[in-house]
Fold:
Amino acid sequence: MTEAATCRPPRPQAVYFFATCVVDQFFPGAGLDAIRLLEREGITVHFPENQTCCGQPAYTSGFHDEARRVARAQLELFPEPWPIVVPSGSCAGMMKHHYPALFAADPALTAKAVAVSARVYEFTEFLVTVLGITLEDRGGPTKVVLHTSCSARREMGVHLTGRALLGQLNQVSVAQQEHEAECCGFGGTFSVKHPEISGAMVQDKVNALRATGAERVVSADCGCLMNILGHAAWKDRQEGRTRPSLPGEHIATFLLKRTGGAQ
Amino acid sequence: MSEKPLHFMPTEGFRERSKAVVENEFLQKSFRAAMDFLMTKRAAQFPDADELESLRRLGERIRQNSLDKLPALLTQLETNLTRNGIHVHWAENADQANAIILDICKKHGAKRMVKGKSMVSEEIEFNHAAEAAGVEAIETDMGEYILQLAGEKPSHIIMPAIHKTKQQIAKLFAEQIPGVAYTEDVDALIQIGRTVLRQKFLEADIGLSGVNFAVAETGTLCLVENEGNGRLSTTAPRVHVAITGIEKVVEKLEHVPPLFSLLTRSATGQAVTTYFNMISKPRQPGEKDGPEEVHLVLLDNGRTQPYADEELRKTLQCIRCGACMNHCPVYTHIGGHAYGTTYPGPIGEIISPHLMGLEATATLPSASSLCGACGEVCPVKIPIPDLLVRLRSEINSKPGSGSPLQGQGAGYSRLMTAVWRGWAAIYANPAFYRLYSWLVSRFNWLTPAGQGGWTSVRTPLRPAPKRLRDLLAERE
Structure:
């Protein structure tokens, strides 16, 4: 066994999949691909039917009672001691880093929140640090660019795992964009409260991603993807392009496609 | 020079001001270039991530120690400064601070003042008070001098004139300084400024400066600067008045070197600044220079408000390095003036609400994508994004239902509260959520094409025709 393997937590038989409301409603394909990838690794994936949203939109907007109500409903979804895999850095960050403080007024709920947050993994983090996944690239040569969300990077500290996964695909070159660590300008309700600032930020981000000449952008966060792809498509429309100048997808979809599908 | 202080609500016109900058391609490019330069310089000063992290932890602990013991340290500072022969004054607000300084001017018949760079003097709008009292207060920091000529406010706390081009400065000098011809040669421009200011130093009868660290155990005022104007302002005139916020105190002399190092490396990417002044006494018998009288004005001006709250108190850890603005994508896009506050950028968004009240600043905490870059670079580990979220909650909650902050509930809206309550009612109830999400997916063709701010630069958001839970159900 390699040293890295011995440092890893024991490989679980089963996980919970917390899809997030954005994936459930806007990127269901990404959620399904993430689940398929986990299943291909021999993991039983449980999708709690009663899951809704982590509560982050209300939390970051300053409506904490409302965030607490929604978060409270999620605390009961994970009775078994399995890891909770979240295909989004920002929702994982909310559950891992803000749930305990959100319930600070109630010791019983705090304990519950701490128990949940300790088991939360961002999807790429789980593949790399828990499963130690090995990927075999079956696609042709291509160039992609990876956008890592700010929450994955700074809150979860998992900015290296997405790159590590793509690095295993020997026909995939990963482009380096300017200002890689800079926010895409999404920020939840920030994007509608301050559309001019958010708009300028996403424009810079899309320009930087496109300037790499990559065929597509991949990201482990659907919030950023909504913003980035939404602006790229808007710009294409403005400039009369019929083919998307910057297509993109969740990293789960890309990884699954490159490695031969669900099997 | 502007005639009147700019008393305005930052919230009013924030959107218009930021929009104007965002649409100005020239400003976009110049802010981006300036911030890239500063970020690169800072990064080069911290090549070792572990060293940076341990130094930040140390900086945080020193600042938290100062705040934990603040009342006692301020008393100790006053005792030791007084023992050293430095007069200590306390000001609750801007008016009191201005009155104290102008009173000192009056006592000494001082009409000509040279000023070292001081953001606190900007905060109290001292120059306007001085002008009204017939005291000529000249800014001697080159950036501040340029802004004084232009009648503008600083747009950055470390590099106040960062929004100005050399062409603008060349024009300004040619127009405002008698006998000066237009030149875009930066060295020549600096020399012009130096020549004017050198004369002012010689003529001044009083000097004003800020303070970076006030050491309680020794009664020492530390001043960090690069141009030597701070040293001249504090030594050449007969009287020196220093002004600072009450939070700038540190307990021990040994606390200064780590903070000094964090400050210069974070702010300008310098290992050390050109000048570091330690002021401990007025001129002593037999000494050849130094002021005959030294005063310190300790200003509250709203600082006791965050001090009273365990979480918000972290705001006061700030050592004013400006790294949060240099790394902020919002600041990079809108510049400092758009904020309409003395302190712009992320630190401005969390401290201005205490200095100016939440009524005037209700928009500022929302002007962040919470990307966390500010918190990541903060040399004293202020959790800026968490404090922004906290302030958002104080702003949006019903007046009287939050913490006792001035203007709490300033952004309370019954409609928004109802919207979020409705949202929570759906999302906290799995059955309601299933119904709601089923409806929006099946009727996704009803999604409006115009979605407010979102669709100003993006295609509309449209739910997928089938949810993930539908796709999973189909697999079985």
